[in-house]
């Protein structure tokens, strides 16, 4: 079955981009018989830069995508100019084969590059949503879904798995990501803001106020009410990833472990109360991902897959940075555990 994973939490700094990168790349390496797509729905386009070669090289390659109009913002603009409520016919041209730019990448990995103009496109999306045409709001939020569907249609004999990286806000282009997704992976860190982010996710996507334990009641239309009225099933929660986790032992701070425990309890309680909003797999709902520390810096700079980092010294902006096997093995093990249950 085709799966499309939205990686999102309504909180910044939880490692969404690093996880989007690591999960998609390692999944593609582990499943060479499949096609893997990364959709970059963040204006900062960080995951695109890393996939396309890392700092410097990746930035230059991303600039080429801008110049060639091969980004998500380019597609939104083209839809506005040429066919506001239907596909324009060249959807496949917006997909970049990552290996063409970064030789470290597997050849089954494709990217819809991100674009800083995505924030500017928010105005276009809202304008189209207010058109007098029936179903205009839904069509204005379906551009990413149209792109992915077009790509999948060209690979009828292969399984396609998608990963969608999102920024923390719930902008209208984030709503596009929701409508293009079937499952949600929610990164968290051990803090109260991550807990609020989970509650906000439930309120915005499912229309449920966790603290009041009741449906959202509003005088205004919300995203949750709009998709419910349209008969659309929201994506289901699949995993909560406690990112940047330390080893849970006596040396861990009490506040740190308390927040981890609270997130685990909250996630499991929500699955019991709202089972229809979760996937049915009998897997661990909450998983720990070890802190990448210097490994994340090496990956960001070099565009290397995590599984190709070696125990050696790398040079980053002229400074020697050591990658230790004692760091690589636990993080890679955690990422592969996630990959195996995606």
Write structural notes for this entry.
- With 342 residues, the chain is of the alpha/beta class.
- It has a single domain (3-340), classed as P-loop containing nucleotide triphosphate hydrolases (Rossmann fold), CATH 3.40.50.
- It is built from 13 helices and twelve strands.
- It has helices spanning 16-30, 46-51, 57-67, 72-82, 118-129, 136-140, 143-153, 172-179, 192-206, 223-229, 254-273, 294-302, 325-340, and strands at residues 3-7, 35-41, 96-97, 109-112, 160-166, 183-188, 208-209, 214-215, 236-245, 286-290, 312-316, 319-323.
- The chain has an eight-stranded mixed β-sheet, sandwiched between helices. It has a two-stranded antiparallel sheet with strand order 7-8. A two-stranded antiparallel sheet has the order 11-12.
- Strand 9, helix 11 and strand 10 (286-290) form a beta-alpha-beta unit.
- Helix 4 packs parallel to helix 5 (118-129).
- The longest helix has 20 residues, at 254-273.
- It is globular.
- Mean pLDDT is 91; it is low at 247-251.
Features:
342 residues; alpha/beta; two-stranded antiparallel sheet; Rossmann fold; 13 helices
Strand order within the widest beta sheet: 3-4-2-5-1-6-9-10
> How much helix is in the residues?
40-55%
CATH class label: Alpha Beta
Per the principal axes of the C-alpha atoms, what is the gross shape? globular
Instruction: Provide the CATH topology.
Output: Rossmann fold
> What is the name of the CATH architecture?
3-Layer(aba) Sandwich
Instruction: Compute the CA-based radius of gyration.
Output: 20 Å
State mean pLDDT (0 to 100 scale): 91
Write down the domain tally: 1
What percentage of amino acids are in beta strands? 15-25%
Number of helices: 13
Give the class from helix and strand content and strand pairing.
alpha/beta
Task: Give the end-to-end Cα distance, rounded to a whole number of Å.
Answer: 11 Å
Q: Give a count of the beta strands, DSSP E runs of length 2 or more.
A: 12
The major sheet is characterized as: 8 strands, mixed
Uncertain residue ranges: 247-251
Q: CATH H level: which superfamily? A: P-loop containing nucleotide triphosphate hydrolases
Helices and strands, in order, run as: EHEHHHEEHHHEHEHEEHEHEHEEH
């Amino acid at each position: 079955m085709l799966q499309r994973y939205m990686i999102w939490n309504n909180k910044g700094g939880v490692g969404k981009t690093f996880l989007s990168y690591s999960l998609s790349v390692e999944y593609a390496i582990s499943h060479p018989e499949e096609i893997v797509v990364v959709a970059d729905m963040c204006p900062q386009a960080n995951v695109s830069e890393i996939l396309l070669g890392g700092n410097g090289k990746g930035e230059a390659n991303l600039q080429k995508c801008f110049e060639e109009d091969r980004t998500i913002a380019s597609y939104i603009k083209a839809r506005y100019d040429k066919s506001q409520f239907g596909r324009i016919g060249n959807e496949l041209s917006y997909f970049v084969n990552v290996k063409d730019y970064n030789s470290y990448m597997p050849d089954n990995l494709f990217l819809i590059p991100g674009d800083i103009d995505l924030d500017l496109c928010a105005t276009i999306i809202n304008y189209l949503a207010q058109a007098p045409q029936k179903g205009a709001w839904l069509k204005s939020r379906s551009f990413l879904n149209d792109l992915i569907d077009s790509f999948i249609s060209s690979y009828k004999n292969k399984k396609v798995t998608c990963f969608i990286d999102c920024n923390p806000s719930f902008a209208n282009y984030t709503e596009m990501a929701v409508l293009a997704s079937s499952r949600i992976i929610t990164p968290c860190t051990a803090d109260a803001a991550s807990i609020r982010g989970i509650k906000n996710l439930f309120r915005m996507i499912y229309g449920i106020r966790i603290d009041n334990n009741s449906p959202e009641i509003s005088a205004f239309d919300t995203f949750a009410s709009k998709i419910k009225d349209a008969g659309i099933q929201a994506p289901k929660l699949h995993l909560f990833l406690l990112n940047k986790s330390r080893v849970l032992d006596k040396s861990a701070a009490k506040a740190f472990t308390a927040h981890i425990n609270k997130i685990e309890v909250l996630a499991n309680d929500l699955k019991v109360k709202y089972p229809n909003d979760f996937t049915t797999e009998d897997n661990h709902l909450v998983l720990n991902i070890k802190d990448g520390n210097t490994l994340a810096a090496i990956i960001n700079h070099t565009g290397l897959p995590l599984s190709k980092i070696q125990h050696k010294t790398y040079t980053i902006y002229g400074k020697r940075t050591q990658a230790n096997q004692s760091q690589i093995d636990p993080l890679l093990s955690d990422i592969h555990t996630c990959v195996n249950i995606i």
